[in-house]
């Protein structure tokens, strides 16, 4: 508690994370990638030094590697979008990544990364939640992790926002998507 104001001064901006542009240079299997990644200071450090979800990325790339680079990936709970950016630069170069992130601040950072890396043709960004029915849900705006629905956090937090919720079935049908190679869900 004593150090919280100091931590917040360095890592937060008006109750939320401070956004930075991290230049990532990383190798996954045979793919050497360089890309801009807009994120929080803490995640930027991790992305630059260790990478994010390395095992998941390497396994998915190994499983889906082909000469066509035409894979279709659904990234549900995109967060800052690191995985989507890697997939768009590798197995989905001629395919698509459909990404879903309900948190408006995370979505804003993520779309900056997509634009900065000129991936608008490969990544379809959707600022919605994905669930088992169509409707709206209330999310915790102070959280930037996958616990935006956490009941205990929400009891202490009055910064909430209602967001639209869709189902994957609805989205696939609405957009006439006929193929899916991978679904990543982190909500």
From TrEMBL:
Annotated Methyltransferase FkbM domain ranges read 75-187
Checking SUPFAM superfamilies in the record gives: S-adenosyl-L-methionine-dependent methyltransferases (SSF53335)
> Origin organism of this chain?
marine sediment metagenome
From the broadest rank down, the organism's phylogenetic lineage runs: unclassified sequences, metagenomes, ecological metagenomes
Q: Show which residues constitute the signal peptide.
A: none
Give any Pfam family that matches: Methyltransf_21
User: What is this protein's record name?
Assistant: Methyltransferase FkbM domain-containing protein
């Amino acid at each position: 508690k004593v150090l919280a104001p100091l931590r917040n001064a360095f890592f937060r901006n008006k109750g939320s994370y401070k956004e930075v542009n991290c230049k990532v240079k990383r190798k996954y299997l045979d793919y050497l990638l360089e890309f801009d990644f807009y994120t929080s200071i803490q995640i930027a450090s991790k992305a630059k030094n260790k990478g994010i979800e390395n095992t998941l990325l390497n396994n998915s790339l190994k499983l889906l590697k082909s000469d066509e680079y035409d894979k279709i990936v659904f990234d549900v709970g995109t967060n800052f979008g690191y995985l989507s950016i890697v997939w768009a630069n590798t197995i989905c170069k001629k395919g698509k990544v459909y990404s879903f992130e309900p948190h408006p601040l995370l979505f804003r950072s993520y779309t900056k990364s997509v634009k900065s890396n000129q991936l608008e043709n490969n990544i379809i960004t959707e600022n919605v939640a994905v669930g088992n029915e169509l409707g709206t849900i209330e999310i915790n705006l102070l959280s930037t992790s996958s616990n935006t629905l956490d009941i205990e956090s929400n009891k202490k937090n009055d910064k909430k926002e209602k967001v639209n919720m869709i189902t994957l079935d609805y989205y696939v049908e609405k957009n006439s998507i006929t193929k899916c190679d991978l679904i990543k869900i982190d909500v």
